[in-house]
Amino acid sequence: MSFDQNLIDDKIDLAILYFKTKDYTNALNTYNDVIARLSSIPISVVKQIRLLRRLAPEPLIGSTVHPQLGSMLDQRAATYEKLNMVDRALKDASRLVQVEPLNCKGYLRKCKILLALGREIEAFKLFQSGIYIIEKVQKEHGIQPLAKLYDLLKLQYSNLNRRLKQKRAQSSETTSGVSNGLQRRLNEMLPLKRNLQSSSTNKKIRRSVDPFEYLPAELISIIFSSLPIKHVLNCHCVSRKWYKTLTTIPQLYENFHCKRKVSLTEFKNGGLLMKRIVQNSYRKEIKSMRITETPTLVHLNKILEMIICEPAFAIKSLDICDRFLTFQLILNKFSKFNWKLNNFQNLHTLKLGINSSLRYENLIFCLFKKLTHLQVITYFPELSGQYNDNLPLNDKLFKRYNSQTNKRIESMEVLTVINHHKLVQQEMQIAANISSYNPFPLYLDYDFPNLTELKIVSFDFFNRLPMFGEFLLKTPLLKKLTLENNCNFCMMDMLQLLKNYNPGFILEEFGFRDKIVETPLNLNEFTTSDLKHLQSLKTLDLTGSSLTTKGFKKFITLCNKNGNLRKLYIGESSNLYFPMDMFVRNRKIIRLYDILVTLPQLTHLYLNGLELDNYTMKQFWADLQKLTYANQLKVLDLSFCTKIDGMGLLQLFGATSTQNRVDPEKQLRLEMLIIDGIEIKKQTLDLLCKHNYVKVVKCNPALKKWKQFGETSWIV
Question: Helix, strand, or coil here: 53?
Fold first, then answer.
């Protein structure tokens, strides 16, 4: 049989896929083929393969086989187990132990099968043999086994040893019970019966109630994975065994999220614990680190220094937000430690919460070359010029990084840049320059060919619209676009950009929230065949838009051309009017019926802050009865529609006695009703839930505004 490594790799991937999809028969056939191919390779070829993989031509102990044969035997044994072919699984496990005596998988697999067959003594001896061989080779030749598997091997051996000791103790207790019967007969013949009985009282064996004495590591991992990290850390204090066992399960500590205003001492202690745990993980890195505020600038400085220069402190995702933090300070720390970047080689997510405009933003991509997600939020309207003293302007490496001209970033997928809403010229009342602040959107001169999500909030697009149009042309994979509270940029500008530049992306989510309400938009300039980029939307956010009723109907028709629109935000719109218990001349109204007929698959509707009253709710109910199909609404937001009261809500669901019986198929039944900022009696809300009109009611009458930073809005 000829050897083709690429073919073998493909077959291995196929076998794994079959196994994961529970197609064990096809998985077994594929594993049989792979193992047959690997077993037929001549030893001379095997030695060459091992050399190419930086292995010794011949193993220290065991057989000279292809490096992948052992794992294939283990996986085929697992497949045999799924097919209840235990004898064949045991045969494969025995072969794995024979050809690779230093592979912990063979001992673990064979002992698992032996224990399932009730052959505990054989499993115990095999555990002993495996640990002895591995420790001997480790001591004499310095060959280190995989730490995670070796720890698991020793843990299972310890558990089995303890269980066998308990069985022996129980057996001896039974034997002593028989002896006690003979003793009682002897006592009847002796004159000092009571004294002898009291001296021969059996001692009770005290059994441990510690679950860690009985449960395997896999089950402990499953149990503690469902607990909050705070509770897991509390469990460290139970005993030394609990501490050692839990810290060998790295998946329990994937996220290093510090408490708010974490001190330097607390961060150091947490960092030391994470370093110890990370050493037991496969990737040897912290999956996610989050720091939200520090007590003082001194604490922040020391924490930044520890993140940069601490050895074996690799980070995959970093989220740091602090009122003292500037990008200038971060650059200063890198310069202080000679631009040590070891801990950021695999950083893919960076979230910065800073106190002033971002300076030298191009250096982010020079320092962190594998970034896929970047979020920069300016939380405070401070002038960035006052922090320029921190910049290492005379540092040679700083100059080299700053002079790099590569503006094509292949790795970037998600970009979020959020400015403080006061850091624009019309708010600051001073000219923008390099020593004060930057009001203009970042990275518009960059090329992100793989960008899928973009958010730009609270920037000034004065003279930047052509640049933004060119930027959109270079993002063919964009799926989500959010623009909020930007100056010199209105909805009409955005639609004209899409029409004139005609970028290649097709959006799934689009949000445009105007900073200032412009003149009413009727969209007479567009037809339903225009703007193909918006015709497959799933989410449309028009909060605070200036669209008229005519323009709105036209726009949602265009955006739902492919029938995908599920979520619609039209709250706080200035030119959309629903029917109310009042007459206003020259107002063209829109009805709920119009929306639901145009968007039959709509599940989320946000009407917050609109002019709605009880009469509107009654009309909503009437519109629902006109539909010829069951509505799909699951979430309805009526927050801050202050003219609605409890009676209006009952009318919305057809629950008042004056209304006719409702067709069950046309009955409005919501998973969530949101009515923040409105005083509604608790009895009314309970009634809605009791009759299954609503599953969950979210009502916070003390809330002052609908926009909540990080939840419904990005405006600080």
Answer: coil
Considering only CA atoms, give the Rg of the chain.
34
Sign of CA dihedral 565, 629, 593, 656: negative
Residue type, 434: I
**577: helix, strand or coil:** strand
Q: For residue 99, is it left (φ>0), alpha (ψ between -120 and 50) or beta?
A: alpha
How many Å apart are CA 478 and CA 505, to the nearest integer?
Answer: 6
Write the DSSP string, 103-118: -HHHHHHHHHHHHHTT
Distance, CA of 419 to CA of 379 (rounded, Å) = 7
Strand partners, 321: 292, 353
3-state secondary structure 243-272: HHHHCCCHHHHCEEECCCCCCHHHHHHHHH
Backbone φ, ψ for residue 320 (5° rounding)? -130, 125
Which of 697, 667, 658 is closest to 681 using CA atoms? Answer: 697
Rounded Cα distance between 653 and 670, Å, is 10
DSSP E strands in 391-514: the ranges are: 414-418, 453-457, 480-486, 509-514
Residue for token pair 């930073």: 709
Helix/strand/coil for 380: strand
Report how far Cα 377 is from the mean position of its chain's Cα atoms: 20
- What are 690's two structure tokens? 């009791």
Contact predicate 337/304, CB 8 Å: no
By the 8 A CB rule, do 114 and 89 touch? no
> Residues 458, 424: contact at Cβ < 8 Å?
yes
Q: Which two tokens stand for residue 204?
A: 């009770």
pLDDT along the chain (716 residues), means of 10: 75 88 89 88 85 82 86 90 88 89 88 88 88 84 81 86 79 55 49 45 60 82 87 90 87 89 93 87 87 94 94 92 94 93 94 92 93 95 85 90 89 95 82 84 94 96 94 96 94 91 94 82 80 93 91 92 94 91 77 94 95 93 89 94 93 72 79 94 92 93 90 85
How far from the centroid of its chain's Cα atoms is residue 246's Cα?
Answer: 22
**Interacting residues of 641 by C-beta distance below 8 A, sequence separation 6+:** 607, 608, 609, 610, 611, 612, 613, 675, 678
Sign for the pseudo-dihedral over CA of 250, 251, 256, 257: negative
- How many other C-beta atoms lie within 10 A of the C-beta of residue 400? 11
163 burial type by CB count under 10 A (0-12 exposed, 13-18 middle, 19+ buried): middle
Token pair of 584, please? 């206003």
The dihedrals phi and psi of 125, each to the nearest 5 degrees, come to -65, -35
CA distance 655 to 671: 17
If we measure between CA atoms, which residue out of 224, 286, 221, 293 comes closest to residue 255? Answer: 286
Task: Tell me the one-letter amino acid at 624.
Answer: L
Contact 340, 311 (CB under 8 A): no
Q: d(Cα 353, Cα 324) in Å, to the nearest integer?
A: 10
**One-letter-per-residue 3-state SS of 535-573:** CCCCEEECCCCCECHHHHHHHHHHHCCCCCCCEEECCCC
Element (H, E) at 297: helix 297-309
| C-alpha to C-alpha distance for 679 and 677, rounded to whole angstroms | 7
How many Cα neighbours within 13 Å face the side chain of 581? 9
Neighbouring CB atoms inside 10 A of 213's CB total 14
